Amino acid sequence: MSCPIGCYDCCMKCLGGVPYCSLVATLLCFSGIALFCGCGHQALTETERLIETYFARNLQDYITLAYLIQYFQYVIYGLASFFFLYCIVLLAEGFYTTSAAKQTFGEFRSTLCGRCLSSTFILITYLLAVVWLLVFAFSALPVYFFYNMDATCHTITVLTETPASINQLCIDARQYGLLPWNALPGKACGMTLSTVCKTREFRVTYDLYIAAFAGAGITLLALLTYMVSTTYNFAVLRYLGRKGIGTRC
């Protein structure tokens, strides 16, 4: 009869050492980065296709944009790899600090090196959160651009009985810095713009940018969750150290 009780106590100790906050943050980070990087990469490809087909006739007009898109796609590859590894490291650090704080494994105690490592992760995570806040804001720009296109197309659909007014409704890619000012045509107006909005490329690209924006928000939430959990664990480790149960490396 003692065996089930021993197994139960063992399971409870193991579950007590699980950093649930860091685990939730890791799942959020993986899903957010997957959305941001996957959808963002494909959205950039579709954007280049839209600009090439409807807003620029000469290759030289959008060659700079094409290079920028290719550059950002390489950055996305690096971001996906970095956050995948960093989230695993933070999860491992969460297991360490939670186990040390709760003294789950017998004589295991917090060490000076462990506290220094925790403080380093806190600093890095804070910096990443600030940088990612800028990324989150930047990812809203293409959503704003496509939202304006969709709203203009909706207005064109409402005003189909007055062609003169329709032709004055335009979306100029040059105003958003996507093309140089000497690019031709550089804009789409009237029924041409309405045709663009009805294409599969436009709808898919719009949805992809929304998904990438949502992924950036989820990743920011994950980083904030990491900040809370790592700061709390570090505070507990310092408290244990002041109580005299911490050890040096």
Topology of this structure?
Elements: H1 2-16, H2 20-55, H3 59-102, H4 112-158, H5 163-166, E1 170-172, E2 187-189, H6 190-197, H7 200-242
Antiparallel strand pairs: 1-2
Helix pairs in contact: 2-3, 2-7, 3-7, 4-6, 4-7
Uncertain parts = 104-108, 245-249
Helix and strand composition category = mainly alpha
Number of separate helices: 7
CA-to-CA gap between the ends? 41 Å
Total strands: the figure is: 2
Reported for the largest beta sheet, the result is: 2 strands, antiparallel
- Strands ordered across the widest β-sheet: 1-2
Mean pLDDT: 81
User: What proportion strand?
Assistant: under 5%
List SSEs in N-to-C order: HHHHHEEHH
Helix content estimate: over 70%
Q: Indicate the overall shape.
A: elongated
Radius of gyration: 26 Å
InterPro entries: Myelin_PLP (IPR001614), Myelin_PLP_CS (IPR018237)
Membrane topology: Multi-pass membrane protein
Protein name: Proteolipid protein 1a
GO molecular function: structural constituent of myelin sheath
